[in-house]
Amino acid sequence: MSQLETILLSNKHGMSAEVINFGARVKSIKFPTNGKVMDMTVSYPLAEDYLSDCFYLGATCGRVCNRISNSKFELDGQEYQLTKNENNNCLHGGVDNFSVRFWEVVNGSITASSVTLRLTSNDGDQGFPGTIKVSVTYELTDDNKLVIQYFANTDKSTPINLTHHSYFSLGENSCESLLLKVNASSFLELNESNLPTGKILNVEGSDFDFKIPASLGNRQQQTKDSSLRKMKGYDHCFIFDNNLLAQPKAQLISLDHNICMTVYTDQPAIQLYTGAYLTGECNPYQGVCLEAQNYPDAINFKHFPNSVLETYETYHQTIVFGFEAYNDKI
User: What span, in angstroms and rounded, lies between the C-alpha atoms of 185 and 190?
Assistant: First the structure.
């Protein structure tokens, strides 16, 4: 068994982030607000607790995050069968996915504010073609942003879709106490198996319209939407109006703790999951995931953005979580 490592990142304002090499996870993000330092995420007390986690807390998800229908796809005339770990589907990369592996901390990469971890996934891993070399760099900046950068190369055409899976609470007991804004005018329709049908729907006039900040709790508890009722909340993919990294894509707000978290990314979409099925040491709705990513099951829909990495390309995607006092935004 590989050795568990914890790397503490910090900045000059008293903000910190703990990174562990198991699953290239963020164990905690601590931000000073209202005179005290609070954890912004749902987290376990000890790094060792993550070894048995089944909820992807703080994890790097891949080779392909979210769901692939029927755990199979066709590429270059060949059909590939993947491992199944959510009924008949492949979730977050399969049974032995990136979140349950020990990543290597790159020698010389650790500074007071950044670290890089890397992983090799061999040809045939979980059924996927090609050997890919993946790295993730975490950097905590002095303007209170946690910057996450993913890089990957392959020796054979293969789908890839990496994301970050922290459950954000902003110090609240429930994400239903939080306000959410998402700069998305459309979202993906889901079928009975929580997989895209291929249809892209407009959010206007629905409980999926977060263009103006809205209470997650009010939306979920008062909804008349049949899919939200069946799923006990959100687990849906929203399509951004643009993929410019410099422009805010989503904001999560705690009025009680005077915190605004802003999400920046160059990814085309975000999966909103409100944690209805958290159990054990965690409680339902204790935190909300804002997983910036490509469209789920994109490999099986020709009209979805391309998810295939070619041998001559470098995969490079960025996700940024920025923290500040909410009253500074007003």
Answer: 16
